[in-house]
Write a structure and sequence with these properties.
The chain has helices at residues 44-52, 94-104, 109-122, 138-150, 168-185, 196-202, 220-225, 230-235, and strands at residues 4-15, 18-29, 33-37, 59-64, 67-68, 79-82, 156-160, 188-193, 205-210, 213-218, 240-248, 251-254, 257-260, 270-276, 282-284, 291-300, 305-311, 314-320, 329-333, 340-343. By secondary structure, the protein is an alpha+beta fold. It starts with a strand and ends in a 13-residue tail after the last strand. The relative contact order is 0.12. The model has no long low-confidence stretch (mean pLDDT 90).
Length: 356
């Protein structure tokens, strides 16, 4: 693990009496790609703005390499921000946009020219120096905004939903570009998004937020495969989220039907939440299933089929490359390792975004 670079220590922030961040405590390590993920209003952009110096916390401290920078102005911090709207100067050409911060620092022309050339090569826009930014596509403008941030050699690059305005294909291309740049530049990225796929694709660490709290923090694999509560399970990817009973170690029931699992330590006959990912719901012959049901809907999604099955009055969603017919009776089987058991939420902010 790289050394600790940033510590947002017990940060609280309110606007107009509404609590946006409530005692948030977050550590970011050097050369890490950290994504703040959550729905609108969860506090992720406010967290980024506090780190950037655009907002001051009501309580808590911003620690950078062991130094308290809570009251340091943005231009004195070793970080740069790329916003969703790019914030480019439309009356300037590409080179002048990229060089803006360097000129303010009164860097020599030869140094600035070298930096512009390097940054344009890094973002794949060599030869664009004299183009007007107003004549560039959204994807090109986004790359120029990143180039402008990179030339200042920040220790940390802050990105506030920078891909939100791009179409799907371009957004996917830019995700890979950002990963490449992160590896090549060896700088720390803090990325804000509400897009789960973006977070899973790019991050070393995902911080799932809701209502000003960190719900869970970990690797993309851990967040997806081992959600700690119903909110995380429902927000990260598609999921079948059911109420159940933890009968004993390695056995739960869903609607009274016993399902073997691998979880232990929840007690006996304890109400729990159960998460099963659609790709882990296997549709088999009726006799082979732990439970049986009827296919009510099928949607072709390109690389697989999404099928809805009604079983005991509850809807199960399954993903498979093998389609079943609407009206067909099927069995449902789930490998015990693919059943995730969670404690019932202790507060409303831990509840699922939506329940079926």
């Amino acid at each position: 693990m790289e050394k600790e670079l940033i510590h947002l220590s017990h940060i609280s922030k309110s606007f107009g009496g509404k609590v946006i961040l409530d005692d948030l405590d977050l550590v970011i390590h050097e050369n890490e790609f950290v994504t703040l993920l959550g729905p609108s209003g969860c506090g992720k952009t406010t967290t980024l703005r506090i780190l950037a110096g655009f907002e001051t916390p009501d309580k808590g401290s911003v620690i950078f390499e062991g130094r308290d920078i809570t009251n340091l102005p943005p231009n004195k911090r070793q970080l740069n921000t790329v916003f969703q709207n790019y914030a480019l100067f439309t009356h300037m050409n590409v080179a002048d946009n990229i060089a803006f911060g360097l000129k303010i620092k009164k860097q020599p022309k030869s140094y600035i020219d070298d930096k512009i050339a390097y940054a344009l090569k890094l973002v794949g826009l060599e030869g664009f120096e004299n183009r007007s930014v107003s004549h560039l596509s959204g994807g090109q403008q986004q790359r120029i905004a990143i180039a402008r941030a990179i030339v200042n050699e920040p220790r940390v690059l802050l990105l506030d939903e920078p891909l939100g305005a791009l179409d799907l294909k371009l957004r996917q291309d830019m995700q890979y570009e950002l990963i490449r740049m992160k590896n090549e530049l060896s700088i720390t990225f803090l990325y804000v998004t509400h897009d789960q796929q973006e977070a899973l694709t790019m991050s070393d660490t995902i911080v799932v937020m809701n209502q000003g709290y960190i719900q869970q923090m970990g690797s993309p694999e851990a967040i997806y495969n081992e959600p700690e509560n119903a909110f995380v399970a429902d927000f990260i990817g598609d999921s079948n989220l059911f109420p159940g009973v933890f009968v004993r170690d390695e056995l739960v029931t869903i609607d009274g039907v016993p399902f073997p699992c691998v979880d232990k330590g929840f007690g006996k006959d304890v109400p729990v939440d159960i998460v099963i990912r659609p790709e882990d719901v296997e549709l088999v012959e009726k006799e082979r299933g732990t439970i049986s049901g009827v296919v009510t809907e099928i949607i072709f999604k390109g690389i697989h089929y999404e099928m809805c099955v009604e079983a005991n009055g509850r809807e199960w969603v399954s993903l498979s490359t093998r389609p079943h017919l609407v009206g067909e009776e099927v069995g449902i089987y789930v490998d015990p390792f693919n059943i995730q058991v969670m404690n019932k939420p202790e507060s409303e902010d831990e509840e699922a975004v939506s329940t079926t």
